[in-house]
Amino acid sequence: MTTSKRLSERKVAKFQKNITKRGLVPETTSKKGYDYPVGPIVLGFFVFVVIGSSLFQIIRTATSGGMA
């Protein structure tokens, strides 16, 4: 038996073994719960900037007579 034939038979056996496992995904790989992609500090800073800038814009518009 040549080396290439032995390697190809090993690959075929591995592939056939993998075929029988299709659809049997363990429960641990799926995500449970809600994990935010950003931390609470970054989220708080973002909310602070957005709300602060909108309040600043409202105050600026009110003090300039409504026309900016």
Automatic annotation (TrEMBL):
Belongs to the RAMP4 family. GO terms for biological process: endoplasmic reticulum unfolded protein response. GO terms for cellular component: endoplasmic reticulum membrane. This is Stress-associated endoplasmic reticulum protein. It is a single-pass membrane protein. It comes from Quercus rubra. PANTHER family: GEO09675P1 (PTHR15601:SF0), STRESS ASSOCIATED ENDOPLASMIC RETICULUM PROTEIN SERP1/RAMP4 (PTHR15601). Its main location: endoplasmic reticulum. InterPro entries: ER_stress-assoc.
